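User: Before I run my own analysis I want an independent prediction to cross-check against. Here's the chain; please return only the structure tokens and, at the end, one sentence I can use as a sanity check.
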Amino acid sequence: MRIVLVGPPGAGKGTQAAFLAKNLSIPHISTGDLFRANISKGTELGRKAKAIMEAGQLVPDEITIAMAQDRMEQADAAGGFLLDGFPRNVSQAEALDAYLKAGDLKLDAVLDLEVEEDEVVKRIAGRRVCRNDSSHVFHVTYAAPKAEGVCDTCGGELYQRGDDSEETVRNRLDVYHTQTEPIIDYYKAQGLLVTIPALGEVADVTQRAMDALKK
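Assistant: Structure tokens:
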């Protein structure tokens, strides 16, 4: 299967993408992973992206598209893939359509993880990270530490990262609504969009997505 996963920040795309890709036996292709891999390997695309990012500019669509196409052409993606973070706008979606059409391929579904905006803010703004080890993550509501502000694992101080503040989260949501949300209508017009309620346990959301794909 060839699937695109979309949804606002905080919807759990990365978590769901990993579970779905495993259940469907297809590679999980994440935009973040593509950038990290190309930069660490020193590919031509990676060098271009790194220079642009270090200059504080946004990486243009053509570089992101080229990285995604290169990854989709690898052997493990021959039988399908799950795209997470790409396409990020309508121009990228159109480029993906053109790429697939040229190979006589097509998408099977676009899964939209649906979460209310206030829930997104609650999920992200409630995160607290240990200063000693950033892999120790808690949440003031969903995974509260035993003692407020103290890491259960090592006793380190818990803090809210700057990019997890409510103001930053709402700014990220504004960018999502402006740049990425239009692809929902784009794919709905093609009859590919499947909306998945993303509230509840991770396993329950995964099962909803799997059930929807079977239909």
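Sanity check: Residues 2-214 form a domain with the Rossmann fold fold (CATH 3.40.50.300).
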